[in-house]
Specification:
Layout lengths: L1 E7 L3 H22 L2 E5 L9 E6 L5 H7 L7 E4 L6 H14 L4 E4 L3 H28 L4
Parallel strand pairs: 1-2, 1-3, 3-4, 4-5
Length: 141
């Protein structure tokens, strides 16, 4: 199970600074969960089984909306208690609900975040196995 973290921030400079300070946290989540969790970019999103959208700074709502069409659904928003990350995520999830797009904010203690990511990883892994079985059992036409 490969989990990609797509980083969204209000400006390129803010993204570079915030991402650097958030990298140790992402590594910690990976170690605590035993899952491969790493940052990815737009070009490599489809290389992952599960995408978490890390809302790195406040004011990133419009940047998220620019990317919404290529982001996998449901949308999982990973947040921290710094840089107005949670506030921006709350605005984004309101937009998602208004447009009937399934989404969830993942926020809380490290233990809670790891638990929730683990639950999602199990669901996505089971779904992937089911899809692979269906594809392999369908006759070629």
């Amino acid at each position: 199970m490969k989990i990609g973290v797509y980083y969204i921030a209000s400006t390129t400079a803010a993204a570079a600074i915030a991402r650097e300070t958030d990298l140790p946290w992402i590594k910690k989540l990976s170690e605590m969960s035993g899952l491969q969790i790493e940052f990815t970019d737009k070009e490599h999103i489809n290389d992952y089984d599960l995408i978490l959208n890390f809302i790195g700074t406040g004011g990133s709502e419009n940047y998220f909306l620019k990317d919404i069409d290529f982001l996998p659904k449901p949308v999982f928003l990973l947040t921290t208690g710094t840089n107005n990350s949670l506030a921006a995520s709350m605005e984004i999830v309101c937009y998602l609900r208004q447009h009937d797009i399934p989404g969830e904010i993942i926020h809380g203690s490290d233990e809670y975040v790891v638990k929730r990511i683990g639950e999602l990883a199990k669901v996505f892994a089971a779904s992937k196995r089911s899809n692979e079985r269906t594809e392999s059992s369908c006759p070629n036409t």
